[in-house]
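Q: Here's a chain of 189 amino acids. Please give me its 3D structure as C-alpha cells.
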Amino acid sequence: MAENGKDESKDTAANPGAATDAQAQQPQVKVQVLAQYVRDLSFENAVAQGNMTLPQGQPDIQVQVSLDARKRDTEHQFEIISKYRIESKTKDEGKTLFLVELEYAGVFHVENVPQEQLHPFLLIECPRILFPFARRIISDVTRDGGFPALNLDLIDFMALYRQEVMRQSQKAKAAGGGAAPAPSGAPVA
C-alpha cells in the first residue's frame, strides 16, 4: 500500500503509461540497411541460343531460393545474401526457355537483437527487406531478355527458415544425433 492509502497495482491499470516505462527500459531493435547490391547475375536465353520460337501458353517456372548470412569485421554489421535460381521450361517438352541466377546482397547494421534470436532475424527479416529489389531486377532481366516480365510471388522467408531448420535437424539425426546446427550460412555470432 502506498502512503496515501491507494493500492499501487491498481494505479498502473489506471495509468497505462506506467507499464510502458518498463518496456522503454529494454533497448529497441535497431536495423539499418547500409548497402545493397547485385553480387552476381546471369541470364541465359535458350530460345535465342537454340533458334527456338517462343512457345504459346504458360511455361513451367521453378524458383529456388537460398540464403546466407555472414558477420562482417565491423561490430553489429552483417552481409545477407539472397540467391535466386529461376528456370522456365515448356510444359509439354520440358525444354528450357530461360535461366536466371541472381545473388542479391545487403549489408545491415543490427543492434539489440538477443543472441538466440539473431540468426533467425538475419535470415527472415533482412531478406524480407531485400526481396522487393531482387524481384524488380528479375522482372527487368526477363523482360529485357525478350520474355514477359516475371514478377515473383511473395516469399515466406519464415517458412523457408523453418524448412531449413527441419532439414538440418533431420541431417543431424541421420549423422548420429546431437543438436541441429544453425541453418544455412556461416555462423553469424
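Q: Can you summarize the key feature?
A: Confidence is low (pLDDT under 50) at residues 1-6, 8-12, 185-189.
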